[in-house]
Amino acid sequence: MADVRPHDVAVSIPWRQWTPEAFREARERDVPILLSISAVWCHWCHVMDESTYREGEVVRRVTAEAVPIRVDADRRPDINNRYNLGGWPTTAFLLPEGDLLTGGTFMPPEEVLSTLDEVVRYYRTERADLEEKLKRRRERRARMEELRHRLRGSVTPSIVDEVVEATRRSFDPEHGGFGEAPKFPLPDTIELALAAGHVGRDSDLLAIADTTLTAMAEGGMYDAIDGGFFRYSTTADWSRPHYEKMLDGNARLLSAYLHAAQVLDRPLFWKTARDVLAFTESTLHDVETGGFAGSLRAEEEYYRLNAEERAWRTPPAMDPTIFTSWNAMMILAYLEAATVLDEPYLGEHGLEALEAIWRLNYAPGAGMAHYYDGAAHVPGLLADQAWMGKALLKAHAYAGHGDYLQRAEELMGIMRARLMDPDVGGFYDIPYDPQALGRLRERLKLLDENAVAADMALHLHRLTGRDEYYDAAAGTLEAIAPLYRAYRHHAAPYALAVYRFVNPPLHLIIVGEPTAELSRKLRHVALGIYDPNSLVETVDPEAGAARLEQLGLPAMPVPALYVRRGRQTSGPIQDPSQVRPAVEAVPA
User: Fold this and answer.
1) CB half-sphere exposure, 366, CA atoms < 13 A
2) pLDDT at 140
3) Among candidate residues 217, 231, 226, the one with its CA nearest the CA of residue 271
4) What are the helix (H) ranges across 201-266?
5) What's the confidence (pLDDT) of residue 8?
6) Residue 296 · residue 247 · CB < 8 Å
7) DSSP for 471-524, written as a single string
8) Which of 351, 394, 439, 375 is nearest to 535 (CA)?
9) Whole-number Å distance between alpha carbons of 522 and 561
10) I need a surface site. Which of 241, 308, 439, 485 has the fewest CB within 10 A?
């Protein structure tokens, strides 16, 4: 049952999985494929399952005239990225080879039947014309992808300025947020406004972050009873949410509220961060595996109840899938919260979750995967490798010792071997597989995933000095440079990665035995300082003598902290209360 979720068990249509056998069946029967892309949290997916896919004529004809394949969008983002037709559920009709014929999103029974009529008629009577058109379409798409992947651009500070200006233009000053309804939180865009406002002392940009985070925390986006943020708002004023709760959204918003609390010191932001953590601990933390569950289903009737009424109702169903990328996002937020909120137990939980994800989802040579149905599935996706790499590097900074850096390098080795474009730069979203089905033979370079990968590579370069990591970061940012303008304010992850690449980091280096009391106190203060381009590193003068030499720092006194930005380095600091003043004395 690799791609079929529990809520599909009762569906009368005999869904197949995305397998060579299903495609072979379509070829042997000479019929099209009906691809349904669903999600366990998706309200309209459940409605379509309970209505359209239970209607007798639909079941009879789809079973007789097509091969029905069901895919979960979260468990198979590779398929979703290539066949999604504008939302969930996606209802797509394919040729047996995997070419897209037509489709849409939610379809009532009569629309499925009429579309099936059209597909079958065209498939039977105009096959030669159809195959010729599809051949030309494939060739045209291949040429466009080849051209797109051959382009490179310069990586300059002006990229950050352009995306920041797009963020200003898209901001809704009345309600907060960006654009019109439906309105998504866009935590990366918030983070860009906060970072640029903080670094540039720009009160207007800080107000963008402030207004947006306040509106979401005080509006319908936040569940004031059970806790946690919903996925998005169907209205511009955040008053009517779409009721699913996602691990990735809550993780990214938790980080945004923590950073905003540090910069703006709003009581609401401190409270919201703590509330999201409490919700995550009580609801999404999976005690059995040690990781975090993926989502809660969108059950509108439940979420419209008051606190007393909800106490008597079963909460929405939880998706127990352990997604590596989403777990890594929450682990990052936990490790940040441990120092920002001065709650060490959150750091312990974050490190425990990190070990659980590594144990469940890592395979040597293949990298990270997703865990469900008692096993790991779909290894090698770029998002999983890059986000896990960032979580490992955060753990390396937080703990000051352990093999986190080594494991991050292992993942980068897998990314460079299996996902990197060696000619132009950048990372593809999936490994190359000549036997892949349908459009999985086409590999994509996705902006947000490449931004995370570039960040990871740059971080590794700064910790090791290895040129191949710098080249990977530079090549990735250059490969995406021709694309970012089309994304406007949605290019915020890329702009943040560019900012970190073109500016020297705030490098906080603790020299001393990592577990020594003063080393831990100095590290705790360093990790609690907000800077969008910070790097915290602990070097043991005995085990890390070569690294100390590389950094040009003395082995004594110990423990001591050094503040470095560019060519400026402070003297040794042994009083934790003097770290912040020393940071403020080093210009950005």
Assistant:
1) 11
2) 85
3) 217
4) 203-218, 247-264
5) 41
6) no
7) HHHHHHHHHHTTTGGGGGGGGHHHHHHHHHHHS--EEEEEES-TTSHHHHHHHH
8) 394
9) 7
10) 308
3: its two tokens: 């791609």
DSSP 140-186: HHHHHHHHHHH------HHHHHHHHHHHHHHB-TTT-SBSSSSB---
- Residue 224, judged by CB atoms within 10 A of its CB (0-12, 13-18, 19+), counts as exposed
Give residues with Cβ within 8 angstroms of 340, minimum separation 6: 258, 261, 262, 273, 528
The whole-angstrom separation of Cα 94 and Cα 67 is 10
**Within 10 Å of residue 579's Cβ, how many Cβ atoms?**
23
Name which of 295, 138, 264 is nearest 198 in CA terms.
264
CA distance 344 to 454: 30
Q: For residue 260, which of 250, 271, 269 has the smallest C-alpha distance? A: 269
End-to-end CA distance of the chain: 53
What is the per-residue burial (b if ≥16 Cβ within 10 Å, else e) of 151-178? Answer: ebeebeeebbebbbebbeebbbeebbbb
132: three-class secondary structure by DSSP: helix
Phi-psi region of 552 (alpha: psi -120 to 50; beta: other; left: phi over 0): left
**CATH topology for the 508-585 domain:** Glutaredoxin (3.40.30)
pLDDT score, position 7: 42
Run of H or E residues at 77: helix 77-83
- Angle, helix 203-218 to helix 157-170, in steps of 10 degrees: 50
**pLDDT computed for residue 2 by the predictor:** 42
- Which residue, among 216, 198, 218, 219, has the nearest Cα to 207 in the 3D structure? 198
Q: What is the pLDDT of residue 261?
A: 98
Q: Report domain extents, the chain.
A: 6-149, 157-503, 508-585
Secondary structure of residue 33 in the 3-state scheme? strand
Assigned token pair, 46: 């459940």
* Same fold flag, 6-149 and 508-585: yes
What's the pLDDT tens digit per position in 469-484?
999 999 999 999 999 9
Nearest Cα to 529, choosing from 159, 263, 285? 263
Those residues of the chain that have pLDDT short of 50 are 1-2, 4-11
Distances, alpha carbon 230 to alpha carbons 1, 303, 455, in Å: 28, 10, 28
Q: Do the strands 506-511 and 534-539 form a parallel or antiparallel pair, or are they unpaired? A: parallel
User: In terms of CATH architecture, what is 6-149?
Assistant: 3-Layer(aba) Sandwich (3.40)
Q: Answer whether CATH 1.10.10.10 is correct for domain 157-503.
A: no
CB burial readout 398-407, b (16+ within 10 A) else e:
bbbeeebbeb
Are the C-beta atoms of 412 and 389 separated by less than 8 Å?
Answer: yes
Token digits of residue 92: 């797509």
pLDDT value, residue 536: 98
Whether the model pTM is above 0.85: yes
Size of the chain, expressed as the number of residues it contains: 588
Helices 187-200 and 203-218, packing angle to 10 deg? 150
